[in-house]
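S.,

Sequence below, as promised.
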Amino acid sequence: RGEVVNMETDWFTLRDARAQLPTYNPAGIEIATASTMSPNGSVLAGTHGLSLLSLAASSPSGFEVLDRNWGVYEKVCAEHGHVADRSTWRLVNPMFLAETRADAEKAVSRRIGSMAAYVNRQTGQNPDWAQTPEGVIDQWRNDTLGEFGQAIIGTPDEAIAQIERLIEKTGGFGTMLILHVDMANWEDTKRSYELFASEVIPHFKNRNRGREASLQFAEDNRDYLIGGLVGAITKAHTDYYGQPVESAGAPA
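The prediction came back faster than expected:
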């Protein structure tokens, strides 16, 4: 902010140092407090006016208490003179996307077993489902990936459905954070994020709303539109060549 800084440490010294760029946010660095199932994170965040980060939003138990924990956050914020702002609320969900569900399964099948083994070793477990890629995929999709929730391993449509489910449960939040799990090669991983950017984000930004409305109008009025098009072409052809399209020969 233009202040002159003098600082001396055991490995560098600053004399009359000045920052060339201002801070990104004049209000300072935003701090988010992690919350899983208990209301402890909501209480801590609300007490100090911090943002809320729901780390286990897609786990069955974490999902169930999303609205309750936000209610706690609102209440504690009000008690301490802070404003609970949904635009700063972050929800976390593991996701890996491909063109089809089968493509997603194929892309993760080589690495997902080692990732499951890494997670399970931390808890000293070696369950039956972790012995095959199919078992791990089923577990992570339908039960949970540790405390980080159920993973979407499928298509952009499945990601959209999950985000809409989270919106309905919470009443609205600010940011969807994808928990990255290294379960595919780099090319397939990049493709997953590309699909999220090109198909999932536009759905929620309503960027295709005008095009979809135009296409729906064309579909609903195709007889009128096509009839008018054919009529206009026929009239233009007749006016120019002196005969209808059906009987006209090739122009010279």
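The chain has one domain: 27-205.

Coffee later?
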